[in-house]
Amino acid sequence: MEWLDYDGDACSAARALQVLGDRWTMLVLREVFNGVRRFDDISGHIGVARDVLTRRLNALVDEGVLVRVPYQAPGSRTRYEYRLTPAGKDLRPVLLALMAWGDRHRADPAGVPVSVVHADCGEPVHLALDCEAGHHLPIDAGLRMVAGPGARRLAATQ
Amino acid sequence: MEWLDYDGDACSAARALQVLGDRWTMLVLREVFNGVRRFDDISGHIGVARDVLTRRLNALVDEGVLVRVPYQAPGSRTRYEYRLTPAGKDLRPVLLALMAWGDRHRADPAGVPVSVVHADCGEPVHLALDCEAGHHLPIDAGLRMVAGPGARRLAATQ
Fold first, then answer.
1. Residue B37 in this model has a pLDDT that exceeds 90
2. With a CB-CB cutoff of 8 Å, which residues 117-146 of chain A face chain B?
3. What pLDDT, in 10s, does the model give residues A14-72?
4. Which residues in chain B are contacts of A13 at CB distance < 8 A?
5. Going from the N-terminus, what domains does chain B have, and what CATH number goes with each?
6. What digits encode the pLDDT tens for the residues B102-146?
7. How many CB pairs under 8 A join A and B?
8. Smallest CA–CA distance from B99 into chain A, residue
9. What SS3 string covers chain A?
10. How many CA atoms lie within 13 A of A141 on its CB side?
11. Percent over 70 (pLDDT), chain B
C-alpha cells in the first residue's frame, strides 16, 4: 500500500493512542499491571499530581481499560481500587515493548532495573513474531503493510 | 519483587516514555516507519500543527531516534528528511503492539485498516514471546517481574 494515499486516522495505532497517548497514562497502567491499584499508592509511586491522576484514571475507566472496584478498610469509608479489564490486560505487549526499548537504549550502567521472566521457568522473555503461515520470526523480521478492509483511501489532493 | 518498594523512575518503560510519551510523537514515528520522511508530508498526513511537529522532530533527533538527512529537489534549496536511526528502528515493536490493540479493540466494523504481514510469505504476523530457556510462548503467557541489577530500592516510608 502507498501509505500517504490512506487516511492515517483509520490506523489502529492512532486509535490506540487516543486512549494511551501520554506518558502518565502508560505509567498508571504500569502500576496497575504491577498490582498497585489504589489512588494514593499510584500517586505516590509515580509522583503524579492528584488532579492529573484523577483525570487519567477516569479516562481509562471511560475507555473500558480499567474498572473501579469498591473496597473498605476497617473504620474507613468505601473507596475504590482500579483493576484491568480484559481490554486493559491486552495492553501488556505495549508495556513490554516499551520496556524492551528502554532496556536496550536507556538502561542504567548498572544493568536493567527489571527482568520480565516466564512464570513457569523463570527465564527472561523477549518479544517475537508468529505469522499465520506458521513461521516463528524474530521481532526484527522483514514485514510489509497491506491495506485491510477498514482502510480509507484519501481523495487525491492536487 | 514488591513493586512499590522500588523506584519506578528506574523502570525502562518510564525511560522509554520520556522519549515517546505523547500521541504526536508516536504518530510521527508511524509515518517515518511507513516511508513518509518529509516535513510537509508528515504534517499533512497526520494533521499536526507545524510548530508542534517541529518540536517533536527536534526532540526525536536529540534523543537519537531520528536523523536529519539533506535532500534537494531541482531548483529548490536544500531541505531535510527524517530517517530512523538503529534506536528508532528498535521502536517498531511498540507500534506493532499499539496496532494490535487498536485492531482488537477499536477497529472499524468494516475490519482492520492495515494488516502487517511477513515480507517473505505475505501472511499476517502477531506478537509472541520467546524465553531464554527456549520456550516459544503466546503473547499472553504468564510472566513475572524480577528485580534486576539496575533496580533502585526505595527507602522505607512510614
1. yes
2. 117-133, 135-137, 139-146
3. 899 888 888 899 999 999 999 999 999 999 999 999 999 999 999 999 999 999 999 98
4. 26-27, 30, 95, 98-99, 102
5. 3-138 (1.10.10.10)
6. 999 998 888 899 999 999 999 999 999 999 999 999 999 999 999
7. 343
8. A13
9. CCHHHECHHHCHHHHHHHHHCEHHHHHHHHHHHCCCCEHHHHHHHHCCCHHHHHHHHHHHHHCCCEEEEEECCCCCCCEEEEEECHHHHCCHHHHHHHHHHHHHHCCECCECCEEEEECCCCCEEEEEEEECCCCEEECCCCEEEEECCCCCECCCCC
10. 26
11. 98
Structure-block grid coordinates of residue B29? 514515528
Is any Cβ of chain A less than 8 angstroms from the Cβ of B153? Answer: no
DSSP at B131: E
| pLDDT at B83 exceeding the cut of 50 | yes
Phi–psi pair at A111, nearest 5 degrees: 125, 180
In this predicted complex, what is the ipTM?
0.93
- Give CA–CA dist A130/A138, Å, rounded: 9
Residues A54, A57, A61, CA angle at the centre, nearest 5°? 135
Provide CB contacts within 8 A for B128, sequence distance 6+. A127, A128, A129, A130, A136, B136, B137, B138, B139
